Every structure is written in C-alpha cells, then in structure tokens.
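Follow-up to my post from last week.
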Amino acid sequence: NAGVTQTPKFQVLKTGQSMTLQCAQDMNHNSMYWYRQDPGMGLRLIYYSASEGTTDKGEVPNGYNVSRLNKREFSLRLESAAPSQTSVYFCASILESGVPTEAFFGQGTRLTVV
Amino acid sequence: QQPVQSPQAVILREGEDAVINCSSSKALYSVHWYRQKHGEAPVFLMILLKGGEQKGHDKISASFNEKKQQSSLYLTASQLSYSGTYFCGTVSFSGNTPLVFGKGTRLSVIA
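User reply:
Got it. Predicted complex:
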C-alpha cells in the first residue's frame, strides 16, 4: 500500500504561473484534506472534501481551487501563483470526516514562488 | 479556527518530563495528536474522544477534558527520539467537521 501519494515533491514557480498539485490515496478513505505549513503557523487547512462530490473551504482558501476527481484523487490548483503561496503543502486522508480515526499524510510538496 | 497550543517550544534533557497543552474555543468532539520530524510528514500518535479518557503510546500519554475544551500531552522520561514538532488537531463535533491543527510545539531533547 502506498497510502497517500503527492506529486510533485518539489516545484519552483514564477509569480503568475499556474500549477496543480496532485494527491491520491489507496485506502478507500472518504475524506481528503489539503493543508499548508509555514514556519510558526502550524498546519492550516486550505480545502477539504468530506466525501466524493463535495468540497468545502477551510481556514485559508483564497488563491486556491480544488477538485475531487473521484474517491481516490483530490487536486489543489493555484491559478496565479504569488510569493505568499510559497509553502509546504500536505495532503491527508481520513476514513470518514468527523469519525475519530487516524489521518494519513502524504510526504508533502515544497513549493517556491519567485 | 485553530486550537491554541502551549508552550511554543521546549528543551528537555533526556529523562525529563514535559507537558504540551491544547485548547479550543469550540466544543470538541475529538482531539488528535501528531508528531513531525524535520522534513517529514506528521505521524499519528493518538486520538482522544470526549469523555475525559486518557490514552497512552509507549511513555507518551494524553488526557482530554471536554468541559474545558482542553487536551494535554504528557511525555515522560523523554528520549532523544521524542524530538520533533507536536501538533494537536481538533474536530469540533461529529459529522463533516474538518480536522484543524494548532501551530505546533517544538520539542528538543538533548543528551
């Protein structure tokens, strides 16, 4: 089992460029999340998908869009990257949103916007 | 809304104990604890449900006081391997409420 797989692992973008971060899980989980991690700020929730076909904003959604392509895949898109979006992005999945089970994280995508 | 963790950072010598606190302004359904090593993804430690239960993981245990909307993580007889950043995550009520995390507590254990 691969668990949660994120691609790419590293990316450098120029301001204004767009890109999509991919996330896939093979654990048949219903809920998937995107977080960003910045020094001193912890893990902040960008968007989440409680189940296939639904997406909701988290704490810091501005500048991002998401797509829950199917049960396995949840992508995060930056339409026009800004230096403030330089961060480490983590995708996570949980069996069921609201059910107290372990969250599994991908290895992260380190994004630099110059 | 992020839960609040304290302290922000702590330095311990091997064998010493530490407590990390997590509090929320919202009524909590469950509290998660994770540890992250530098450059890695967060790793699950334990979950606590409302009901004041305590759980343990090796020499790491935690408590959850739902009335005070607080949880504490206890690290006893710390080892070098305990170093990392500890995050508490909270779910405010059952249903489709997301898991949100605090800013983390950086723990350094030195010999």
